[in-house]
Amino acid sequence: MDEATGQRMFFPLSIDRKAYQLDRGPFDELLFRNAAKFGAETHEEEKVLEVDCRADGVDIVSDRDRYRCRYLIDATGRAALMGKKHKSIDRIENLGKFAVYTHYRNIRAGEEADELFRSGSIHVPVVDIGWLWVIPLSGRRLSVGLVVQKQRPKDCEVEDLLCRYLEASPMLQRLLAGAEQDAPVRVEADFSYSNRSRYGLRHACCGDAAGFLDPVFSSGVFLAFTSAARIADRVHQALSEGREADPDLHAADDQAYLLGFNTMRLFVERFYQSNIVHNLFFEADRNPELKGQIARLLAGDLWVEDNALQRSLLAGRQMTG
Ligand SMILES: Cc1cc2nc3c(=O)[nH]c(=O)nc-3n(C[C@H](O)[C@H](O)[C@H](O)COP(=O)(O)OP(=O)(O)OC[C@H]3O[C@@H](n4cnc5c(N)ncnc54)[C@H](O)[C@@H]3O)c2cc1C
Description:
This protein is α+β, with helices and mostly antiparallel strands. Helix content is 36%, strand content 20%. It folds into 2 domains: 73-88 and 192-314, no CATH class; 98-188, 2-Layer Sandwich (D-Amino Acid Oxidase, Chain A, domain 2). It has helices spanning 24-37, 81-85, 111-119, 158-167, 170-176, 220-241, 251-271, 274-282, 288-298, 308-314, and strands at residues 48-54, 57-62, 66-69, 72-74, 89-91, 98-105, 126-127, 130-137, 141-148, 180-181, 186-188, 193-195, 199-200, 203-205, 211-212. The two termini are 16 Å apart. The structure holds flavin-adenine dinucleotide. Flavin-adenine dinucleotide is lined by residues 47-48, 75-79, 81, 99, 101, 145, 188, 207-209, 215, 218, 220-221, 224.
């Protein structure tokens, strides 16, 4: 939604293209406990400090112990353990610069709020310095955030910026009336990057450790899951065949990863070109085919041949509404 013009665009996903809203804390906990249930040896509250991937194995030093293992999958998120070790992180400059966000609880009943929680839809109001997110969470809580892409106003501390933009939005004023802030205001800086060195001798990086994109299209978790699944399958097979020391183990999968990552990267870049936001999003109503293609990208349906929008993004062609 464009807060200035009031224009809005809605992208419903079809039955076979789904997206889910997840509360990351409980969801990650579930995944972690499930891995243990299926036999993984799990360690909590332990930080990896150093790793050394060698031809005959991997040495790991944590803040508690030392380990030797056959393979390392770096899933350290934006801490990007291997990317920092190899100095292989390339920042992507033209996307969002930082995010400032918090949660609210006890969102009052009302037509607008009830519809938001019923539909589970994400709202993305476009503002002059970037965009806001409004994400309904379980228990009538809302996650709200501001991603800043342009120079931020000098007369305002980063932490106060969110408040300023929430107050300027009539929709958010209505939704948040009487609600209580449920978490501190957090700031995430050093936004989008790609890791040039995503795999090598006895190691591979998945999720944000491989690359991170401005989250306007919520691409982070599905890219994390798809990259993790590919790497896990490949490593599992290589371990059972004793081929895990092959430094090119992930070469083919990496191409698939790049296809997904680059598609979303180009899509986000287009989002920040204001004429494209207008043409592509707000006037897309005129073109149901294009709307369907956008919905497929938003649902993470990236490894297909028949999405004309994706093809034109990758070919660097101009997109029009
Ligand atoms: C402001 C913001 C908003 C976002 N909104 C969305 C959204 O709406 N939808 C979406 O899909 N994605 C969103 N994302 C992106 C999403 O959060 C990430 O893409 C996703 O969490 C990546 O998963 P991951 O497992 O790679 O990393 P993470 O979820 O960050 O997990 C990494 C884990 O590694 C641990 N770790 C780090 N270093 C070490 C170490 N040295 N030793 C041991 N453990 C370590 C961390 O503690 C953490 O538990 C957002 C990101 C940001 C910053």
